[in-house]
Amino acid sequence: MTVYNIALIGFGGVNRALAGLIATKNPQWERQLGFQLNIVAVSDLYLGSVISPNGLDPRMLTEANFTKGGFGQLSGGSSEADNETVIKLAPADIVVEATFTNPKDGEPAVSHCRWALQAGKHVVTTNKGPVALAAQELKALAKSRGVRFEYEGAVMSGTPVMRLADKTLAGAEMKGFEGILNGTSNFVLGRMEGGLDFSSAVKEAQALGYAEADPTADVEGHDVRLKVVILANELLGANLKPEDVTCEGISRLSPHDIETAAKENCRWKLIGSAARGVDGIVVGSVAPKRLALEHPLAGVGGATNAVSLNTELLGSVTITGPGAGRVETAYALLSDIVAIHSAQPSKDAKEAA
Ligand SMILES: NC(=O)C1=CN([C@@H]2O[C@H](COP(=O)(O)OP(=O)(O)OC[C@H]3O[C@@H](n4cnc5c(N)ncnc54)[C@H](O)[C@@H]3O)[C@@H](O)[C@H]2O)C=CC1
Ligand SMILES: N[C@@H](CC=O)C(=O)O
């Protein structure tokens, strides 16, 4: 049986949900996917660090109500988060990075990924910072060490837009994309249309695990801007940086704007897009748009995301699915691990060699 030892960096909504899935689904994964996951370390800014080479009980991790520094009570634990030691020294095959997204320079997550890859460990991450700001470097580093850097959850949570474009639509010749790429702002717009005020709607999105640690990133469009950069660079072969993408969020839309749109059979949506122009240059933008109700993106509600991929050979292909959520995003991490597993000879075969 293949068992991947994993180290969780960050133990908030997403990595906690992954631990919860491990607690219940390992036997099923072994049958259906050919592997089980074993958590050998966790490090979290608030809770501290713990390394346990034989593995930590995932149920204990998710059910114990740890307070600040709580990992210090565990065998092999410390009340301080020593990410560097955990990443470099824990006996993990895969480092799972799910700390806060830093839209400015991606740190410290970029360093977390770098340390792991340098140590010959695969990285799976839902953190948009390293992917938007350092993907080229990290992909090259992974290649040089014979490991993988996977990040499906960085855009559209567990909805597999990047693998769809990369694998299933290979050769279709991508020209651009347009979509709803932030679950929180889409949820907030829907709740405001139902009469709720802006800040109560944001609070609901936070309680549901959709929002960033600082929800300004969601409602001001900064989160979508990172996602536009990631998709433009991945799908269109661009080399965009966040400052290349114009960005306006939804915070300036008033209840009156939303009501007026509804009376005129329209709906506001926060749209992220990028396209290659005739000059070959890729241009991206983020802005609220008033869409007629017949528009394919107008009916996308709640934290659901949707993106229409404009291709040369197939025309427009739209993928829709969850854009945020703890379990939905933990699924993205699982799908990355499935990709790692599929791409390599079995760990048992390597150990036998
Ligand atoms: N929640 C969602 O729906 C989605 C989240 N993401 C991304 O996934 C990542 C994790 O998201 P959530 O779990 O929802 O966030 P969260 O805010 O619930 O958890 C983040 C955890 O990371 C810890 N942390 C922060 N900085 C740290 C550091 N330097 N070292 C160690 N631990 C640190 C925090 O203490 C917290 O427990 C974020 O980057 C987010 O942008 C991506 C797609 C969807
Ligand atoms: N805060 C983000 C989470 C996923 O990236 C969102 O609301 O879409």
Description:
The structure is a single chain. By secondary structure, this protein is of the alpha/beta class. It folds into 2 domains: 181 residues, NAD(P)-binding Rossmann-like Domain (Rossmann fold); 163 residues, Dihydrodipicolinate Reductase, domain 2 (2-Layer Sandwich). Helices cover 40% and strands 23% of the residues. The protein has 13 helices and 13 strands. The strands form 2 sheets. Strands 4-3-2-1-5-6-7 form a 7-stranded mixed sheet, with helices on both faces. It has a 6-stranded mixed sheet with strand order 9-11-10-8-12-13. Helix 5 links the parallel strand 6 and strand 7. The longest helix has 21 residues. The protein is globular. The model has no long low-confidence stretch (mean pLDDT 96). The ligand N[C@@H](CC=O)C(=O)O binds next to helix 7. InterPro entries: Asp/hSer_DH_NAD-bd (IPR005106), HDH_cat (IPR001342), HDH_CS (IPR019811), HDH_short (IPR022697), NAD(P)-bd_dom_sf (IPR036291). This is Homoserine dehydrogenase.
Please compute the radius of gyration using only Cα atoms.
Answer: 21 Å
What structural class do the secondary elements suggest?
A: alpha/beta
- Low confidence ranges: none
Distinct ligands, ions and cofactors found in the model: 1,4-dihydronicotinamide adenine dinucleotide, ligand LTNE7NMQ
- CATH class membership of the largest domain: Alpha Beta
Q: What would you give as the CATH superfamily of the largest domain? A: NAD(P)-binding Rossmann-like Domain
Q: What is the residue-averaged pLDDT?
A: 96
Largest sheet composition:
7 strands, mixed
CATH topology of the largest domain: Rossmann fold
Number of domains: 2
Number of strands: 13
CATH architectural grouping of the largest domain: 3-Layer(aba) Sandwich
Apparent shape = globular
Order of helices and strands: EHEEHEHEHEHEHEHHHHEHEEEEHH
Which percent range describes the beta-strand content? 15-25%
Alpha-carbon distance between the two ends = 16 Å
